[in-house]
Design brief:
By secondary structure, the protein is α/β, with parallel strands linked by helices. Helix content is about 35%, strand content about 15%. It has two domains: about 5-165, Response regulator (Rossmann fold, 3-Layer(aba) Sandwich); about 175-230, Arc Repressor Mutant, subunit A (Orthogonal Bundle). It has helices at about 5-15, 45-55, 75-80, 115-125, 135-145, 175-185, 190-195, 200-215, and strands at about 30, 35-40, 60-65, 85-90, 105-110, 130, 150-155, 160-165. Strands 1, 2, 3, 4, 5, 6, 7 and 8 form an eight-stranded mixed sheet that branches.
């Protein structure tokens, strides 16, 4: 945690925020020889948006789009990039656009108490994930790292995992992926064994491997994972 918290930003943003948003334009511009990073916001509640715009607005290297983007527009933006980095909420993470992430700007997910498995899945897909409990400095660091082609997972407790290259990384095998998808739906080992026509012992082995790879404390943490980002 930094000196300022998101709660502080919520309370002070109405008086301290300055207007830095400009009209939509192509990313990677230069002003007085310095690269300007174009940032777009997804769907957030009003207080969250004010806090985000306040924090981002204090970084002169960032340029916020005037209008927010809908989460589903990320796929369209892949065809005609309008921004370098998009910030989206963890309640509506969109499916990855075709050709992700090589053909697209970066994404930073703002998450409420993100579990390690959730962070690891997004990280493997080249997506940064930052807990709302993190400091504004953590957010700005994630935005700039994402712009530079990397990604980071910042957990609730401040622990972080950094990747300098956000190209998609294969962290599970094809069979583990099949098992993970069923676990994400909340299915038990017996149901998965029956569905995949494998033994329960084999399922157990895959589950143990997944728990290790995704740094999960239990199968419960695998429920609801955005597994589409791994395919």
């Amino acid at each position: 945690m930094g000196n300022a918290t998101w709660g502080d930003m919520h309370l002070s943003s109405s008086s301290s925020s300055r207007s830095v948003s400009r009209s939509s334009r192509a990313p990677a511009r230069k002003v007085l020889g310095e690269s300007i990073v174009v940032v777009a916001l997804g769907r957030f509640d009003p207080l969250q948006e004010i806090a985000l715009r306040t924090v981002l607005g204090h970084d002169c290297a960032l340029d916020l789009l005037t209008r927010n983007i809908a989460d589903v527009s990320l796929a369209r933006a892949a065809e005609r990039p309008l921004f370098d980095v998009a910030l989206v909420g963890d309640n509506a993470i969109p499916p990855p656009p075709s050709g992700w992430p090589e053909s697209h700007g970066g994404v930073v997910v703002m998450a409420h108490a993100p579990t390690p498995p959730r962070g690891m899945v997004l990280l493997a897909a080249g997506v940064s994930c930052v807990a709302w409990s993190s400091s504004p400095k953590d957010l700005l660091g994630a935005v700039h790292l994402t712009t530079q082609g990397g990604c980071v997972f910042v957990a609730d407790d401040g622990d972080r995992v950094v990747r300098r290259d956000r190209r998609k990384e294969r962290i599970v095998t094809s069979r583990e992926m099949q098992v993970l998808k069923r676990l994400a739906y909340g299915e038990g080992n017996s149901a998965i064994a029956l569905r995949l026509n494998i033994s329960r012992a084999t399922v157990k082995k895959h589950v143990e491997s997944l728990l290790t790879k995704l740094k999960a404390a239990s199968k419960r943490e695998l429920i609801g994972l955005p597994t589409e980002w791994l395919t």
